[in-house]
Amino acid sequence: MFSLIIIGKILPLQITSIAESSDTPYADMESRVKQKKLEQAGKFISSILSDDILFAGVSGSVSYVPEPEDDIDIYLITRSNRLWRVLLKSFIVCRITENKDICLSLAFDHEYAVEYYRSFISGLAAKDSVQVIPFAGLEYYQGLLHSSPEIMATYQKRENSTTESAPVSLGHGSRLSPIDLLLYVIVSSWLHLKSLYRNKKFDRKNMPGDKFQTVTGLHRFYLKTVKYEELDRKFREGYL
């Protein structure tokens, strides 16, 4: 069983029974696609889990209604100052398993995650955060959601929640070591070069909508796509 977070409560998501509850062939196909992608995500996440990972889940289209060609967006939160060693291991595992559907697109360490949810999250990102499907660290993630004024103000009333905010107290890692700093420099540089290469390919294929920006810092990593920026703009303007 996997669990789907809704503000104030946890709803069970029985992956094996989704198809059985579908009323139409189209819905049945959608459920099979989602089931397969969640199974892939579960296998990948189980292969990278360690004490440094506080939360691991699936975000993006797979947390909604995915198409067969959609990537599986993995969302990770690590202990403070452990982000880049976790990312390096994750990229290596992804390369070894040759799972081209897995996309490591969003990762924070504890220090940045706490600040992000309490101060910065808004718009479509807030909606997507509520939709994330957790595989590990559910209680920790719920604490982050409840710490966000934006999320609580926007979504708590819809669920009539009376659950109090859980404290976000985990995640204190050690000081940033020279090794972690070196890993940040090396891995982030590789990611930026990789994004430049892929964006040039999109230009040659006349696919500007698929271009993306790689955003990195000592405590954060995420992919900022042209498509997502457009969706966020429409969401804020009330079109979605």
What descriptors fit this protein?
8 strands, 8 helices, single chain, two-stranded antiparallel ribbon, alpha+beta, Beta Polymerase, domain 2, six-stranded mixed sheet, disordered N terminus, globular, 240 residues, 20% strand
Explain this structure to me?
The chain has 240 residues and is α+β, with helices and mostly antiparallel strands. The protein has a single domain (2-172), classed as Beta Polymerase, domain 2. Helix content is 49%, strand content 20%. The chain is built from eight helices and eight strands. The protein has helices at 25-48, 83-97, 110-120, 123-131, 138-146, 149-159, 178-204, 226-236, and strands at residues 2-6, 9-13, 53-59, 72-78, 102-109, 133-136, 212-217, 220-225. A six-stranded mixed beta sheet has the order 6-3-4-5-8-7, sandwiched between helices. A two-stranded antiparallel sheet has the order 1-2.
Oligomer: single chain
Would you identify the CATH H-level superfamily? Beta Polymerase, domain 2
Number of helices: 8
The separation of the N and C termini measures: 30 Å
Nearest-angstrom radius of gyration? 18 Å
- Count of spatially separate domains: 1
Report the top-level CATH class.
Alpha Beta
Helices and strands, in order, run as: EEHEEHEHHEHHHEEH
Give the beta-strand count: 8
Poorly predicted regions: 1-23
Approximate strand percentage:
15-25%
| Percent helix | 40-55%
- What spatial form do the alpha-carbon principal axes imply? globular
Question: Structural class, please?
Answer: alpha+beta
CATH A-level architecture: 2-Layer Sandwich
Order of strands in the sheet with most strands: 6-3-4-5-8-7
Q: What's the average pLDDT?
A: 85
Major sheet size, sense and barrel closure: 6 strands, mixed
In CATH, the topology is named: Beta Polymerase, domain 2
